[in-house]
Amino acid sequence: MTNQYQKFVEFLFDRDESAGDWRFDYGLIEPDLTGEEIVEFVRRLLENYETDLSTYSDWQLGMGVGYIFNNSCSNLALVLRDGPVAIEKRVAAIRALKSFFANCLNERCVEALGHLSEAGNELNHFCYMIWDITPLTYCEQTPKKNTIYSALAEVMKYTLSLDNIACVESGLHGLGHLALYYDNASAIVRKFINSHSVMDKHLIAYAKQAEKGCVL
Fold it and tell me: pLDDT tens digits, residue range 68-106?
């Protein structure tokens, strides 16, 4: 790891669970990074879960990635959406979520459904809530909105193919929000509903709501 990247990873994840949620601590000081560094480092940590993040606990990971994507905690996701960095690099960071879903969330989330309030771990909370907490799902004032929406839809569609029901639900949740702004989102959900591989009745019911853009 480069020194700056390592400091960023440590800032996000080297946290003591017994001290509780650190993300709103008074006097919290983020590493001083350029927009280019933020976009590159977010892409890098999402793509390199196995080498860079896998030793952290569910709680540490959930808090850290939540800090990245929740703009109530930080402006990092706003840099991905609106920052003065080439759109190709910002979209690459968004697409890197596919790797994080496959290598981390699919393996470590409890197989539980968030919309039914089934018990999970801190990664389940992030997995289900990411599309609620991130500003990325609302790009109506963003010049490259369709490029970003397309990248998000790609991530969400990908999660529908994963084994863990929590990841599948996350994709449906995200597409339900995206359906209000991006036409192809509903078509992706309809294809999922029509798939013979879908068996869970709760997911089918949730998917039908997502297709209409009616998810919480």
Answer: 999 999 999 999 999 999 999 999 999 999 999 999 999
pTM: 0.94
Residue 87 lies in a domain: yes
d(CA 199, CA 7): 44
What's the total number of domains in the chain? 1
> How far is the C-alpha of 76 from the C-alpha of 121, rounded, in Å?
24
* Range of the structural domain that residue 163 is part of: 3-211
Given a contact cutoff of 8 angstroms between Cβ atoms, the answer to whether 75 and 93 are in contact is: no
CA distance to 67, 78, 84, 112, 149, per residue, from 128 (Å): 15, 20, 29, 10, 18
173 assigned to some structural domain: yes
Residue 216 lies in a domain: no
Closest of 139, 133, 172 to residue 155, by C-alpha: 172
